[in-house]
Amino acid sequence: MTAFTLPDECAHKEGGNHMSVFILALDGLEYDFVMKWKLRNLLQKTHGKFQIGREYWKWDNDFGSPYSPYVWTSFITGVQPHVHGITGFWTYRSRLIEFIRRLPILSKFRGKRAFLSRMGVAPELQGKRDLKVNTIFDVIYPSIAIDVLGYNPEREMRVRQFRSRNVDEYMETSKQNFLELRQRMFEKIKSSWKLLMFYIHYTDAAGHCCSFRKLKLIYQLMDLLTVQIKEKLRENTVFLIVSDHGITATEKLVGASKDIKGAPKHSHSTHAFYSLNFKTAWKPKNITDFYPKIIEWANA
Q: What are the chain's domains?
């Protein structure tokens, strides 16, 4: 395994070696489960959880919880949702259609996107084109972003997921998407970069669709993936693992679970996970705290 040589607090001396930053972005990874199941590779040398405030929530009638497009875009931009410009997963790039589909009278109806697609009106995933501010990928060069929400999400993979008719089909599609992106990541990790961010939706899909017993198996897979990644990293690489929220049981179907037949009653918890491969007293209080720290670590 690569020997990591990281100065205290990742502060550089003039003329010293510059560092790279690898970000493993695990959507929906629940800190309390990582601790309960003693997944030491995910925990690394420094770890903790932090709150995801209401400015990052989306409301489903009277129920609110962290919304991934808001959180991840704030992570890569360092600004809150009302500033960065990303309003959701999809956009029709038509003010009229956006206005109609967001009318309160239509908000309770599911399947609006599928209906519009059958009518020949296909949505696009929001990304770089919709951003109003720079990201860490614009500031740190060279950078590689793999399927990052709010920047370059893979449209065809999302379409395959949303076409799934039940839990088993949804999870199989999510697994195949993960395996394809993992292979791409291991190819990209060999190239030249100062920042590489690899986003994984599989953990969130499992949180919404699986029993906690099955979820443990997927968390163990992520724990193993952490080891495999570290074996490929260069010296002086900061390895940050981070999530946008966790997962918890609820009394009713909410959010993404409402669209998947057979899904358990799970929703997003209001805290997120982080870990680092070096000792530090620094602790994030907000998802936006990572943006300046990543730039500092990369010495950009």
A: 17-78+135-298 (3.40.720.10)
